[in-house]
Amino acid sequence: MNFHYPACKFNPINAESLKQQKLCLTKKNNNGDGEGCSSGTLQNWKYDEKAIRSCLIELIVLAELPFKFVEHPAFIKYSKSLQPKYNLPSRHTISRDVSKFYVEEKKKLLKFLGNPNHTIHLTTDTWTSACQKINYMVITAHFVDDDWVMHKRVINFKRVNSHRGEDIGRVL
User: What local confidence, expressed as pLDDT, does residue 115 receive?
Assistant: First the structure.
């Protein structure tokens, strides 16, 4: 029995491994010779619900989509055409996931900005809302990471009394 059980095709643990595997090509950008040739590695593809959900959250945040976007019939149809196994989360679940994403990204940013070896530049922008006649200011941090990629992150959004330098300085 000890010899048969691990190799048996009816063993549920082995059933998945006996199926034909799906392959995916993980591309590498440039091989460094200046010709722009693409190369990559061939790997087994595996369904990963966490990765799909993470990409969905990133899409909603970066594209500034409303949470109810995931409940739109066209998006549901599109998603099911890509991966029928995946059950789309509700807008309420997306809202919770975006909040978690924000907390994680904030921790990463604070860790990066807390490093004394990094230089950070701050910019401000002020404007007055047309309908409310309220002055606002956004504070943005600009920095270059360890891979020499430039980033900018909004680190604060404040209401200010006016666009004068003294008022902006007090808020900063």
Answer: 80
